[in-house]
Amino acid sequence: MRKRVFSGIQPTGNGHLHIGNLVGALRNWVAMQDDYECIYCVVDLHAMTVPYDPDTFRQARINTAKSLLAVGIDPARSLLYYQSQVPQHAELSWILSTITSIGQLERMTQYKEKQDKAGQNLGLLAYPVLMAADILLHKVHYVPVGDDQTQHLELTRDLVERFNSRFGEEFPLPERITPEIGARVMSLQDPTSKMSKSDPNPASYILLVDEPDVIRRKVRSAVTDSERYVAYDWEKKPGISNLLELMAFFTGRSIDDLVETYHDSGYAAFKDAVAEAIVEGLTPIRQTFKALDDDEVARVLQKGALDARQRAEQEMISVRKKVGLSAS
Ligand code: AMP
Ligand code: TRP
Questions:
Q1: Which CATH fold would you assign to the domain 4-182+293-323?
Q2: Distance separating alpha carbons of residues 66 and 73, to the nearest angstrom
């Protein structure tokens, strides 16, 4: 039996994804399809925990789904669907919420960061419980995510232990899979904070669908430091280190090798090379994205949801039995 993998991504804003998502998470999503049984989800219910516009949201869901297909998620090999189309996620989330401590939820960094913007709605506080339900619903072993999700995975593991000891062995302990290089891609405008779609300055991130000239402009304006040499040193040169990691990802070359090549080339030449590597890597993704048809994407995801619902229902029968929600 192949081990199972689950991961989810939120359709936030206009639903376009950035290279932080690709490098920190999606590349593993794609690679794991070769060796694991993979389940990938556009977690639209999660995205509703911050203020949003329903019409924009509708298109954002499609854009995120398209982005996943464009980076290489293959619906013939992996299950791909919208979270909202599989109601068992919400059902399991409710069950898990009854064994979750509010204090632990209130200590979540993401909650503390987002509550100022989003207001303290219950969904935002309960967000990590729904995430745990996503993972446990499919009884998966591995969860490929960026390192900003560590705390949420810890909660999931706590809930597994609590559930299993209270109701009997049901869920395996899931493990986080995070790349060594690029687990945290930093903002191009402030290399001490992570690249984020919610940053008001679009020059701080590169979208998978950004046109080549836009990419070149953003990389050229990336904040670095006042020295002249290229070196890999997160303490002293976070901007350059970030660009080095990106270039390593997009060229497949090692950081050492890149440092050797560009150490004395000057920042302008180095940035040009980084930009070209990113342009080259993103061009096939952008082209595939543009060629995909909305209706076709909707059909593919509906088919995924149909399969996912059947599997989720099988799992829930056993969960309901354990917690006393069954006739026998
Ligand atoms: P989000 O866009 O926050 O829903 O994140 C989707 C996935 O991308 C998650 O697995 C995150 O851990 C990952 N991710 C988001 N931002 C970054 C970043 N700046 N660097 C690395 N991974 C990221
Ligand atoms: N919280 C994750 C993020 O912000 C998204 C997510 C929701 C997720 N459910 C998940 C990731 C389940 C992995 C597994 O990126």
A1: Rossmann fold (3.40.50)
A2: 10
Q: Ligand 2: which of 12, 109, 111, 152 to mutate, most ligand atoms within 8 Å of CB?
A: 152
**Cβ 156 under 6 angstroms from ligand 2:** no
Domains 4-182+293-323 and 202-289 share a fold: no
Give the model confidence (pLDDT) of 68-91 as tens digits.
Answer: 999 999 999 999 999 999 999 999
Which residues, 6+ apart, have CB-to-CB distance to 291 below 8 Å? none
Confidence of residue 151 (pLDDT cuts 50, 70, 90): very high
* Type and span of the H or E element at 251: helix 238-251
For a mutational test of ligand 2's pocket, the pick from 5, 40, 134, i.e. the residue with the most ligand atoms closer than 8 A to its C-beta, is 134
Q: Determine the atom of ligand 1 nearest the C-alpha atom of 194.
A: 19
pLDDT of residue 146: 82
What ranges do the domains of the chain cover? 4-182+293-323, 202-289
- What are the angstrom distances between the C-alpha of 60 and each of 13, 159, 300? 7, 31, 16
Tell me which residue has tokens 């297909």. Answer: 69
Residue 148 CA: nearest ligand 1 atom is 12
Class of domain 202-289: mainly alpha
Measured CA to CA, the distance from residue 8 to residue 83 in angstroms comes to 9
Task: Give the span between the Cα atoms of 211 and 199, in whole angstroms.
Answer: 19
CA–CA–CA angle 220, 224, 227 (5° rounding): 115
Residues marked as catalytic? 114, 194, 197
Give the residue whose CA is nearest to atom 18 of ligand 1.
20
| Alpha-carbon torsion (25, 29, 35, 38), positive or negative | positive
**Average pLDDT value for residue range 265-287:** 98
Q: Is the pTM of the predicted complex or chain greater than 0.85?
A: yes
What is the band of 30 on the pLDDT scale with cuts at 50, 70, 90? very high
Radius of gyration of the chain (CA): 21
